Amino acid sequence: MKDSISCTRCGNAQSISTEAHLEWDEISCTECGEFLDTIGHWADSHSPNYSIQILNQCRGLTLKMARENQPLNDQTSTWRASA
Question: Using CA atoms, how far apart are residues 29 and 22, in angstroms rounded to an integer?
Answer without folding.
Answer: 18
